[in-house]
Amino acid sequence: MTSHRTQPTVQEPEIVAGNGLLHRRALLRRGLTLAGAMGAGGAGSLTGAAAEPLADPPWTHEIGGIIPPYQVASRFEKNVVRSTDNPRNEPRNSRARTPHHLLKGIITPNGLHFTICHGGVPDIDPAQHKLVIHGLVKRPLVFTLDALERYPMVSRIGFVECGGNSAPLFSNEPLQESVQAIHGLASCSEWTGVPLAALLEEAGVDLKAKWMIAEGADSPRLSRSVPLSKGLDDAMVALYQNGERIQPGQGYPMRLWLPGFEGNMNVKYLRRIKIANEPQLSYYEARTYSQILPNGQAYRFYFLQEVKSFISSPSHGQALKEPGVHEITGVAYSGTGRIAKVMVSADGGQSWGLAALQDPVLPKAFTRFRMPWRWNGGPAVLQSRAWDEGGNVQPLREAFVAQRGQTSKPPSVLAFPSQHFNSITSWAVGANGEVKHVYA
Ligand SMILES: Nc1nc2c(c(=O)[nH]1)N[C@H]1C(S)=C(S)[C@@H](COP(=O)(O)O)O[C@H]1N2
Ligand SMILES: [Mo]
Fold first, then answer.
1. Residue (of 326, 405, 335) closest to 19 by Cα position
2. Does the N-terminal or the C-terminal CB of the chain have fewer CB atoms within 10 Å?
């Protein structure tokens, strides 16, 4: 009689693409030892750990510290910070970038959310701040923060991304910069607030109107024209960020949040919404966000942040300690909706394998992807490419640059006029394990 018993053999993970990409199901397998795991002889292992009793470190002998009323990260995490820049020490362009290489998951901690403030961070007294809705409405309305607090609220997880995020990739030479410098102007939070549609309805908005002009209370009085259809769709007057009141850098005490739309339109310190028939051609519409394309046309009133992904680790500036199995991970997102799939390559785009998408996969939010990879110690070029549920795909570099142009290598990573880069990022792993930014 032949035996049909399954043999209890340890299966080798299935290879799905060139240069060692493994099937994503290997991530679920408990036996798969990733680099750095504790095991006899492996990286970071404690030799003979199993045989000897654990020695007590000092903190095991002492009473711990006092619990602070507002908790902050361990003092050993002091490198997990935003990179800030403020050219010429003027407040008008101050920025802070999210350290993606040090984060896992999809939520950006509040202290690490990227920030762009064109006039510094205002110090707004919430008791004095007001929001006005006027223009083509039946009843102009004024709201205090207290009044808004009494409306039914909604919570939703989603990203904000500056139109200028990833702009260093417009350079014709790959800048030797980190994922934080290149992609740090995108973050993802749970936002809670009042749906703007409810407030517009109460004001009796003229539904034939086409635009709403949103204005902030900071010194630039930043204002942008937003299609009224977005205001009546999923726009939110956000008051809370990851459960607590939004940070001063994010628009305290209230901001306009337009899921999936260009960062600049998400007006912070929101104080005025005017309903109008025409866009107002504000400073940011007339200048910064109207770049000229290679075909001579202006790239104007372009709102959507299109489908994109990047590998957050391993990434430029990091180093793989030894050959073996490593996890490639990053985030994917699209202003159109949910991420449908992410493919990863370890051979510079010659072959691709399907990455695992971590639940939850939410519309217009970061989606975490993971891919197991066996590094053989040789050169590799890691890339990711995302598709969204609208059928859009992240363009390859050659096609993207042909359509959107590129610039000669700029004097600094900060000096880019171009917007809305959503093509591929490539990280090259050298034989020494060091990871560098390249074009492939
Ligand atoms: N009032 C006001 N709103 C603003 C800005 C600003 O400087 N003032 N910066 C804009 C820009 S350029 C971007 S990319 C986003 C950034 O939002 P965040 O700082 O919360 O990440 O806010 C936008 N809204
Ligand atoms: Mo921005």
1. 326
2. N
- Shortest CA distance to 154 belongs to which of 188, 187, 190? 190
Give the Cα separation of 274 and 132 in Å (integer).
8
Residues 428, 309: Cα–Cα separation, whole Å: 17
Rounded to 5 degrees, φ, ψ at 276 are -145, 170
160 alpha carbon – ligand 1 mean position (Å): 9
Please state which CATH number belongs to domain 308-438: 2.60.40.650
Q: Is 425 in the pocket of ligand 1 (CB under 6 A)?
A: no
Kindly give the distance from the C-alpha atom of residue 294 to the centroid of ligand 2, in angstroms, as a whole number: 22
pTM here? 0.92
Q: Which atom of ligand 1 is nearest to the CA of 165?
A: 14
Selection from 402, 165, 168 nearest residue 305 by Cα: 165
The verdict on the CB of residue 250 being under 6 Å from ligand 1 is yes
**Token digits of residue 367:** 């989606």
> What is the domain class of 130-177+184-299 according to CATH?
alpha beta
In sequence order, what are the residues at sequence separation of 6 or more whose Cβ sits closer than 8 angstroms to the Cβ of residue 115?
A: 82, 94, 95, 96, 121, 247, 249, 250
Minimum-distance ligand 1 atom for the alpha carbon of 220: 8
Could you check whether the bond before residue 57 is cis, i.e. omega within 30 degrees of 0? no
Using the mean position of ligand 2's atoms as its centre, give its distance from the Cα of residue 116 in Å: 6
For residue 258, the ligand closest to its alpha carbon is 1
Task: Confirm or reject: Cβ of 200 under 6 Å from ligand 1.
Answer: no
CA–centroid distance, residue 384 to ligand 2 (Å): 24
Ranges of each domain in the chain: 130-177+184-299, 308-438
pLDDT tens for the chain, 440 residues: list them.
444 555 555 567 899 999 999 999 888 766 566 544 444 444 444 445 566 789 999 999 999 999 999 999 999 999 999 999 876 777 777 899 999 999 999 999 999 999 999 999 999 999 999 999 999 999 999 999 999 999 999 999 999 999 999 999 999 999 999 999 999 999 999 999 999 999 999 999 999 999 999 999 999 999 999 999 999 999 999 999 999 999 999 999 999 999 999 999 999 999 999 999 999 888 888 767 777 777 777 777 789 999 999 999 999 999 999 999 999 999 999 999 999 999 999 999 999 999 999 999 999 999 999 999 999 999 999 999 999 999 999 999 999 998 888 888 766 555 555 789 999 999 999 999 999 999 99
Residue 430 CA to residue 416 CA, distance in Å, equals: 29
CA 196 vs CA 25, 129, 158, 276: distances in Å:
42, 17, 16, 16
